[in-house]
Fold this sequence. Notes:
- By secondary structure, the chain is mostly helical.
- It has helices at residues 11-43, 85-96, 105-133, 144-174, 178-192, 201-229, 237-254, 256-275, 284-295, 304-338; strands spanning 51-55, 60-64.
- The chain is 69% helix and 3% strand.
- The longest helix has 35 residues, at 304-338.
Amino acid sequence: MKRPIENGIRPWQQMLSSGTGAIVTALFMTPMDVVKTRLQVQKKPLFSGQCFVYCNGLMDHLCTCINGKTGIKPWYKLPGHFNGTFDALVKIARHEGLKSLWSGLPPTMLMAVPATVIYFTTYDQLKLLLGRMLNNQNPSKIWYIPMLAGTIARVGAVTVISPLELIRTKMQSRSLTYVELKDCVRAALVKEGWLSLWKGWSATVLRDVPFSALYWCNYEIFKSYLCRRYGVTEANFTISFTAGAASGTIAAVATLPFDVVKTHRQIEIGEIESLQHNKKPSSTLAIMKKIHMENGYRGLFAGITPRIIKVAPACAIMISSYEFGKRFFRRRNQGHLEKP
């Protein structure tokens, strides 16, 4: 008989499941955010040097508005009048080609997919490890284990990806060639040292770590409740999708102030880079104080509806795809183990 597999699934199978889930999420969510950005730009035009952030469910993309005199027609400023989301989807696909609906997808595949693989696989492995340390066969049922595992996994993923995020931001904000980028990074290392590659790490952690802690804690609670309610021992696609959407909504609302601050900081850094100023970007605390002074506490919760509309389906698609993949491999492994 073959050696038993821990929790019914191997780490490489968890990695393949999370990678597939990330690709599915990006393919579904990118067109919706491209359309949302086009509708926003149509309502409020952007000027050269301005930056904006859009997120396709897996990662943020910093876009810098370029001068129209260059002759380049960026995807977010192409002409056309849209009367709503569905109208925009149809017109963009018809007049600009289906490819336009997936603008920004290549960097997502290169960066967000590996980050998601690290994050989800680390979470599952840490959850099992913490369960063994507490001699518990079902660590998902102890609320603080998913919370702790999610926190550590997110810190690890952000730390690994943060230098690549900084490099990508520099490339997007100033349209640098790879040679110019190498010189830019080298100059930053000489001037500020290796830690300069982790600029923006604190702002990202401040938003993503509380989100992950709340998300995984609530997801495991909702999943267990729905499994008991419908009398099943293993979560099916519908249960995973529902639990993912509900937990994603709660985490999105609770961490919205951190998301607002991170978006402001990304835009500020992008505009400083694009205009090649020596000005230092504001700290996270300074941005929070500025938002509070200008708009009060309501300013820290700006955009709550769009965030929920964006985050809830992204979380639902990602986790249900991931759980579907794990369930497939678990049953496949079980079938192989049962063979004589």
